[in-house]
Amino acid sequence: MQTTTSGLQFDDVVIGKGTVAKAGAEVAVHYTGWLWKNGAKGTKFDSSKDRNEPFEFSLGAGQVIAGWDEGVQGMLVGGKRTLVIPPQLGYGARGAGGVIPPNATLLFEVELLEARGG
Asked: pTM here?
């Protein structure tokens, strides 16, 4: 795993061969998210794959948690990346939706399906 200056950890599981995701791009991803506890995968809290509905957002526009805006940039379409997102880049002290507790570290597996523009 590589660690950025912000504290985000990432690992490219599969390097894609398509377009690079840059700030300003419209991207589509499949993802699964788990709580990260004591260095291990905990409870799964969400998955676009389970719903069979890719998630789309504008990269770098603040539409998603900061760990996603940072962690998806630089991926190539077709790639899969593991992200370990510390609380300050996730949902912080407020948590989310009753399923993510305050100050939780999150683990995401993200697959970049599409990147347009940017």
From this structure: 0.94
- Evaluate whether 83 touches 10 at the Cβ level (below 8 Å): yes
91 is catalytic: yes
Catalytic residue among 10, 69, 91, 100: 91
pLDDT tens-digit readout, 84-114: 999 999 999 999 988 999 999 999 999 999 9
Active-site residue, 108 included: yes
| pLDDT tens digit sequence for 57-73 | 999 999 999 999 999 99
Domain range 2-116, its CATH number among 3.10.50.40, 1.10.3720.10, 3.40.50.80, 2.40.110.10: 3.10.50.40
